[in-house]
Amino acid sequence: MAYNYRGPRTKEDIIEFANRVAGPLIRPLPSQQMFEHVQKRHRVLFVYVGVESTLKEKFIEVASELIVYTYFFSASEEVLPKYVTLNEVPAILVFKDSTYFVYDEYEDGDLSSWVSKERFEGYLHVDGFTLYELGDTGKLVAVAVIDDKNNSIEHTRLKTIVQEVARDYRDHFHRDFQFGHMDGNDYINSLLMDEVQVPTIVVLNTSNQQYFLSNKKIENTEDLIQFINSILDGTAEAQGGDGILQRIKRVAYDARSTVVSVFKSSPLLGCFLFGLPLGVISIMCYGICTADSDDGSEEMTRKDVIDPNVSDEGSDEEQDEDKTRENSSEVTDEDQEEKDIMEKKKD
């Protein structure tokens, strides 16, 4: 069977992925010592407890699909830590965040969806890749955007508030929210196409690219809970989205960001990449404009050449008419003189 690796492109993560898919889908845990050893090595692990059943068949089916993301184990009830109590067996448990949670088919629904949501810890250090993976869970992501290098009270306070809500209010929000923090606002700015102040808390909807910002400053846990509840009941205003206007805005933002990044990293390369095409286009436009003006001047020149001939021809005709008139007048004068001489002879 072939598996596609979709994790971070680091040496450690690739080696872990290879070791995970190289072994069996369901790894047995025969003793408490082995269970403790595995629990120390992995922050999240799914364990099937019990004998053969239809639930185990579903567990194996889900493991074959999601082994690329997490580990799957099987154990007897005696191997589990003493603090684990089960109402019935067989059962499926997830161990994470220093505790465990039991899968309930009636409340949690499909097993594959439950594993996809629970394969993350309750509180994460969120980066671009993690945020992309969280899109498969269908959860909203509440992120404290802080500066990890800044140890001021305001930065640590926001991070602590999000951690407390993720830990103490899991039963209220874990089905709808994933909590974490992000170092710096560079990635979140590109995602929201806006400048986000640091520190702040942003709630992201990765399914439709919407986001929520609190109208007031979050000072304590109660403020964050109130903000989350306003999102759940629909009173909080959603910004962003994936509509046509937002897509056009995204194209323009990405183009501007690309140009700015190129000029920041290498000004000479930026001048060459963008200056050369602009220069060629300018020359082409200039050539087109000058060609039109030249055609117009040629037409005017042609008209000027033709018009003098027409005027000369007109003047020649007028001169001929004048000569004809003069000749006719001369002829009439001579006739009159002849008539006068003839009358005198008669007298």
From TrEMBL:
Main localization (coarse): membrane
First-level EC class: isomerase
Record's keyword annotation contains Cytoplasm: no
The keyword Lyase is annotated on this UniProt entry: no
Single annotated GO MF: protein disulfide isomerase activity
Keyword entries, A-Z: Membrane, Transmembrane, Transmembrane helix
Listed Pfam families: Thioredoxin_6 (PF13848)
Ranges where the record places region Disordered: 294-347
Annotated EC: 5.3.4.1
Topology relative to the membrane: Single-pass membrane protein
Reaction it catalyzes: Catalyzes the rearrangement of -S-S- bonds in proteins
GO CC annotations on file: cell surface; endoplasmic reticulum; membrane
Subcellular location field: Membrane
PANTHER family per UniProt: PROTEIN DISULFIDE-ISOMERASE TMX3
Name this protein carries in UniProt: protein disulfide-isomerase
